[in-house]
Design brief:
79 residues, alpha+beta, 5-stranded mixed β-sheet
């Protein structure tokens, strides 16, 4: 199971900060989250969203291991 971490507005939208979810790939994980809440799923693929798998930013779909950590990072703002 992947350990999923949410930060900023994602935590507020989902109503949780950390969960374990069964998924073989990052796209499977996004699909599972979208199936639970379409609005939240749409927010996860919005502009400026970054995803870190095992503390490394990824841009494409990647395989997830049984101990993978996936963090969804909202767009940064400020100056």
């Amino acid at each position: 199971m992947a350990r999923v971490l949410l930060f900023g507005r994602f935590r507020d939208l989902a109503g949780w900060r950390e969960r374990e979810i069964e998924a073989a790939t990052l796209s499977d994980l996004r699909s599972a989250l979208t199936a639970e809440d379409a609005d939240f799923g749409a927010a996860l693929v919005g502009p400026g969203v970054q995803v870190a798998v095992d503390q490394a930013i990824v841009r494409d779909d990647v395989a997830l291991g049984p101990r993978s950590e996936v963090a969804f990072l909202p767009p940064m703002s400020g100056g």
